[in-house]
Design a protein that fits this description.
Blueprint lengths: L7 H29 L3 H31 L7 H28 L8 H27 L4 H28 L4 H36 L1
Helix pairs in contact: 1-2, 1-3, 1-4, 2-3, 3-6, 4-5, 4-6, 5-6
Length: about 210
């Protein structure tokens, strides 16, 4: 890593943190799929895995922060790195909170809308994965950042488009208004992961320019 030459543990911790966030995005997607299939064992397993990953990421982020200050590393870029890690943490927080909402509120998603909810989930997941790849490139191969950021923005736009279509179908249906609002909330909740990825991508775009100056 260009930031941390010689700081092997710090490099390893950041790589591990990024891999855990990426893993959480895959498990988030699997959890939604299992929920729609009414596979409770798979769904609760996914939720538990994401909870554990979220706890691991929090601990790693704290360790990285302490190491940066303790060893007085990269004082000119420390704020950027810590800000980046905090916004990346929002992705896994969203994965956990969304799955928890499914567990708690048990929304009834009509079967004919399952493909739409799955497409929305997949695009939110893919935005998050592209975002983590961009962050990894920022530390390891900065020339690759832009291509990953383009993927983040593409998948975020797709998630936004699909979410609008889902909401339109919901409110044009004959369901009770209360159920329409409930399903709209879950479409929005799933879409939020792509919004968090976009927020990280915006930061990365600025940090990459700063690095090149």
């Amino acid at each position: 890593m260009w930031f941390f030459s010689g700081a092997n543990k710090l490099e390893k911790d950041i790589d591990t943190l990024l891999e855990k966030i990426k893993e959480s995005a895959f498990i988030f997607s699997k959890g939604i799929e299992c929920y729609l299939k009414k596979d409770e064992e798979c769904f609760f397993s996914s939720l538990e895995k994401v909870k554990n990953l979220e706890s691991d990421v929090d601990n790693l982020r704290r360790n990285i922060e302490q190491e940066l200050y303790k060893r007085s590393l990269i004082p000119d870029h420390r704020g950027d790195v810590l800000g980046l890690l905090e916004t990346l943490d929002d992705i896994i927080d969203t994965a956990e909170s969304t799955l928890k909402s499914f567990e708690t509120e048990i929304p009834e998603v009509p079967e004919n809308w399952h493909p739409d909810f799955l497409k929305l989930t997949e695009n939110s997941r893919d935005a998050a994965i592209a975002c983590v790849n961009a962050a990894s490139a920022f530390f390891n191969a900065v020339f690759e950042v832009k291509s990953y950021l383009n993927r983040v923005y593409y998948f975020e736009k797709e998630a936004d488009r699909i979410s609008r279509e889902v909401k339109r179908k919901i409110f044009q249906s004959n369901l009770k208004q209360s159920r329409k609002i409930h399903l709209r909330y879950f479409a929005l909740s799933i879409e939020t992961m792509s919004d968090k990825a976009e927020a990280v991508a915006d930061r990365l775009a600025i940090y990459t320019i700063k690095r090149e100056l």
